[in-house]
Amino acid sequence: MIAKLSPFYRYYGSYLLRLFGIFALLFYGTSEVVMRVVTPGRRFYIPFLNQYFNYLEWLRKAVIHLAWIILKLLSYPAIIEQNWGLAIGNKHVFMAHECTGYGVMAFWIAFVFAITANKKWLHQLKWIAIGIAAICLVNSLRIISLLLTMHYHWPALLPFDHHTNFNIIAYIVLAVMMKFYINHIEGSNEKGIRPA
Fold first, then answer.
1. Cβ atoms within 10 A of the Cβ of 180, count?
2. Which terminus of the chain is less hemmed in, N or C, by CB atoms within 10 Å?
């Protein structure tokens, strides 16, 4: 049956299997496994992994510190609270692990690995790093907008909660990055970077 499928369906079928397989591994591996072993009080908590391999905490600190730097550059008296919160005056934003954007990052990583079959890891890692940095920037801007909205008592820009607003904006940024990546691959075909 598979041999009778046209090359079009074989190509896109294998691409979709890779994309959703890698995404599921990264997303559910983070939400179901990593969070259980790095969160104190959970059944499978492992202090060693929490101290040395808690990449969710690294992401959270990166987003909070980037938001703090931007606010300082804009001359706002921002304060980092306990490495997972940010405050201006008496307005506070605390960031849970679920708010780090790991779902959007997992999709970006899966996309980069699924679309290219080359063995040039540096090429893939460069694009993964660009994507993660862009998603962290969007997330930091979300933190800043939340703080400034509370500080100045502005009405909400969109009728959704801030998490949904972040997802909408992050997936728009992700779609733009995907287009740039595909254009980059198409422009690099003569260099040996071929779609999978």
1. 13
2. N
Asked if residues 184 and 176 have their Cβ atoms less than 8 Å apart, the reply is no
Contacts for 135 with CB less than 8 Å, ≥ 6 apart? 101, 104, 105, 108, 170, 173, 174
Q: In this predicted model, what pLDDT tens digit does every residue of 30-39 receive, in sequence order?
A: 888 888 888 8
Q: What is the pLDDT of residues 139-192, one digit of tens each?
A: 999 899 889 888 888 876 667 677 777 778 888 999 999 999 888 887 776 555
The answer to whether 104 and 170 have CB atoms below 8 angstroms apart is yes
The residues near 9 (Cβ < 8 Å, ≥ 6 apart) are none
Lookup: tokens for 152:
């100045």
Distance CA 172, CA 191 (A): 29
The answer to whether the CB of 54 falls within 8 A of the CB of 97 is no
- The full DSSP string for 85-135 is EEEETTEEEE--GGGS-HHHHHHHHHHHHHHB----HHHHHHHHHHHHHHH
Q: Which amino acid is at 91?
A: K
Q: Has this prediction a pTM greater than 0.90?
A: no
